[in-house]
Amino acid sequence: MECCFIAEESPEILSGRLPLIIWKGRSTAVKHFRRLLVILLVMHVAPLIPASICEAKKKARYSVKPDEVQTVQADTHRRQWGMGLIIGDPTGVTVKYWLDRRMAWDFALGSQLSLAGVGVHADYLFHLPVITDTPEAPLFIGGGAFLGAGGNQVAAGLRGVVGMTYIFSEPFDIFMQLSPTLAISPDFNFYFTFSIGGRVYL
Known about the structure:
The protein has five helices and ten strands; from the N terminus they run βαβαααββββαββββ. By secondary structure, it is an alpha+beta fold.
């Protein structure tokens, strides 16, 4: 076996901190020894790679992105009360109260063409930003009840709501909605109403 040990001087060696030994050999035994060292190194390092990948995936899964943080903060500080005008059936004033980022109550008071008088309604709305893929412009669906008076009669019934709203960065929104309505009193009647409007949030 041809092998030798050569010690080379370096600043680290002179300081006594890092002995530098270069092992040179050309025999078959030395080559096998080197291969064994490589195999042992691979066997030691290989199990660490999947663990590091899994750890990175966990961090990516549970980490919160900056835009998600901003969205949560915006939802937390969203102004709950909105007041504005509604035009159509009815035409008057509208008030919206957000319970959270998806649920809200909607109220309106004004003149109603369908009743030839004045009416008020209250709807419970569920907003669906996933469908439009735009959080600022969610579709909404819901339902509620109405009460009105006109022509010496009192009318009452149930109504559904489907529509779309656009929420601006400023405290302001606009909306349009279609409402299938079932009148129960004084007579059974089914019809549709349509309205548009906007609100300022306080």
